[in-house]
Design goal:
The protein has 148 residues and is mainly α. The chain has seven helices and no strands. The chain is globular and about 55 Å long.
């Protein structure tokens, strides 16, 4: 079942329950997926769906950090609820230790030895962790491992 089908089902459930917060978030996610599908002109692959959902999560995380620093607690609570809903559609996130072991494995496979090889490592690594780990976390661990 595609994420779009799942979002449609969850949207109907949220309507029946009169859960306005969930309904609005699910509609935003569905809209993002449909927009990409229309732009592409064909069905999205599961990987493309995950990329879009990860982008939506990233946008909310950035907004959450800005609202926290601005002291907007009302908006922080709303975004935290939205993030929990978005996370329901993403695969379980990898722990920092899991990411570190994947990074070390990838560095060994690509025979990277310095920061100049970071692009090569990230290119090989990102498809493995796409949607499962935050890109900034992955990047910082790669930098740390390459600087050893």
């Amino acid at each position: 079942m595609s994420k779009l089908d799942l979002l449609n089902q969850d949207m109907k459930t949220a309507m029946k329950r009169k859960d306005k917060e969930t309904l609005s978030t699910v509609r935003m996610l569905k809209s993002a997926l449909q927009t990409e599908q229309i732009n592409k002109g064909e069905e999205l692959t599961e990987e493309e769906e995950l990329t879009i959902l990860a982008r939506e999560k990233k946008q909310r995380m950035e907004s959450l950090n800005e609202f926290k620093s601005a002291g907007r607690d009302d908006l922080v609570l709303k975004l935290e609820k939205e993030l929990s809903i978005v996370n329901n559609y993403l695969p379980e996130q990898l722990s920092e230790d899991d990411v570190r072991s994947i990074v070390q494995e990838t560095i060994a496979k690509t025979q990277a030895s310095s920061m100049q090889d970071m692009g090569k490592v990230m290119g090989a690594l990102m498809p493995k962790v796409k949607g499962k780990a935050d890109g900034s976390l992955v990047s910082s661990i790669v930098k740390e491992e390459l600087n050893k």
